[in-house]
Amino acid sequence: MGVVNSKMQLADFIAPLTMGFVIDAFDGSFNGAVWLLVSFGVVCFIAFMTLKSGKENFMTEHPQTISAVK
């Protein structure tokens, strides 16, 4: 929990600074910051789509578990 919390706190510190630098780099325009957020969203979506649920493995390893959804 401490490691996860420290990484979240670090991201909370770095994100506004990064947005400020990007906005300054684009001469006060928020276009760069929006595109930065869009690109991060695409990367997160691709990472999410490559995850495997492992539901099949769970059901074969625990046959006594009754599934609520079929």
| Main sheet characteristics | none
Strand content: under 5%
Shape: elongated
Oligomer: single chain
Give the gist of this structure.
This protein is mainly α and 70 residues long. It is 71% helix and 0% strand. Helix 1 runs antiparallel to helix 2.
Report on this model:
It is a single chain. By secondary structure, this protein is mostly helical. It has helices at residues 2-25, 31-49, 55-61. The longest helix is centred in the first third of the chain and has 24 residues, at 2-25.
How do the strands and helices of this protein lay out in sequence?
Blueprint: H1 2-25, H2 31-49, H3 55-61
Features:
single chain, mainly alpha, 3 helices, 70 residues
